[in-house]
Amino acid sequence: MNMKRFFDLIFSVIGLVILSPLFLLIIITIYLVMGRPIFFIQERPGYLGKPFKLLKFRTMLEIDNKEINVSDESKRIRPLGKFLRRTSLDELPELINVIKGSMSLVGPRPLLMEYLPYYTTRQSKRHNVLPGITGYAQIKGRNALSWEEKFELDLWYINNMSLYLDIKILFETIAVVLSGKGVSAKNHITMPRFDVQFSKQKSSPDKSNCE
Using CA atoms, how far apart are residues 142 and 193, in angstroms rounded to an integer? Predict the structure, then answer.
């Protein structure tokens, strides 16, 4: 077991024990406000792009109305969900992912499986390490950054990984979360989809070659 894994395991277990009363409070609140399910479980790409099941607290309503687009988060998220996202409390169950070994405390954030075909070879290197609950991009702007900026920061982290850097990122993450900065991209609840953005860029004419 390397030092990073040992650090992840010890602090995740300690974190779950210390935060267990808060964990229980959030579970009860979600149940009373939004009902079941309590958790949001989704397949995400992990180490080397291999899928794992990400565990988070649910922040959006289940949609039964077929007239509402499932992808329209603005009509599904409620004040409780916004609060959980702004404070990053929805991420707490990911400590279980860390204990299981599918995530690390610090690393590139695990995105959607659908994004995999759209990465450049360079961007795909973000999967050369375990994904993290927080990362270098999260303390440098969070969702206020562009996708390209996030990926470059992820790669910087991979090339400069150390236990000291992980501890530094964890402490700075607390400050970022408390400030509430960078939770949303402009005109979005979190971030616009990378695959949609990529498709729009491909469909737009390359004006750099136009006279």
Answer: 15
| pLDDT for residue 202 is more than 70 | no
**Strands (DSSP E) along the chain, which ranges?**
39-45, 51-57, 104-106, 132-134
| CB 43 within 8 Å of CB 113 | yes
**Which residues neighbour 156 within 8 Å (Cβ) at sequence distance 6 or greater?**
136
Neighbour-count burial of 27, counting CB atoms closer than 10 A to its CB (0-12 exposed, 13-18 middle, 19+ buried): middle
| Alpha-carbon gap, residue 88 to 83, rounded angstroms | 8
Backbone angles phi, psi at 30, to 5 degrees: -60, -40
Judge if the upstream peptide bond of residue 37 is cis by omega within 30 degrees of 0: yes
Amino acid at 56: K
Rounded distance, CA 77 to CA 90, Å? 13
SS3 content of the chain, % helix, strand, coil (to 5): 55, 10, 35
Class of residue 77 by CB neighbours under 10 A (exposed 0-12, middle 13-18, buried 19+): middle
| Model pTM score | 0.84
Please, is 84 exposed, middle or buried when counting C-beta atoms within 10 Å of its C-beta (0-12, 13-18, 19+)? buried
* pLDDT tens track for 169-184: 999 999 998 887 656 5
